[in-house]
Amino acid sequence: xxxxxxxxxxxxxxxxxxxxxxxxxxxxxxxxxxxxxxxxxxxxxxxxxxxxxxxxxxxxxxxxxxxxxxxxxxxxxxxxxxxxxxxxxxxxxxxxxxxxxxxxxxxxxxxxxxxxxxxxxxxxxxxxxxxxxxxxxxxxxxxxxxxxxxxxxxxxxxxxxxxxxxxxxxxxxxxxxxxxxxxxxxxxxxxxxxxxxxxxxx
Length: 202
What we know:
The chain is an all-alpha fold. It has helices spanning 8-25, 43-62, 84-98, 118-139, 148-166, 183-190.
């Protein structure tokens, strides 16, 4: 990805955090056990995973507690208000990134790649939030939280970081799309998701 304009990555991260928060707030009370585009995971499990990943980014940058359970083996059980932990994780992530200089070339991340330039690491963090916002929205019949303006920078960074992550099971193999696919569809397909996924056609 070419060097982002100063602070542009902050806008991307904020939009992705908002997308995840909004998608989770919109989950109907009876939908937490529904299947999602993340194979074998329910809406609750995707929420737990996404929450843990945001905490992991915050912990990598500023220290402090990380996720309390393995984000890649979510239990599917949350006692009490399901939004409390997510809101705290998003706030922690936002605060951590707020202390990172726009041009910092070596920001610690929880990814196998380790330290990354600020604009790459922050958009990687945003990518995780945004794609799981889409997973939850798709599973619960909400409008897609992704638009082309958000998908564009996410896809640019995804193409830099995702291939090694597939070896860890973080992403499924890419799905082929037509050259005419819009940027949201291209992003989802690259991350191994069917852009037309719905619970009824899985």
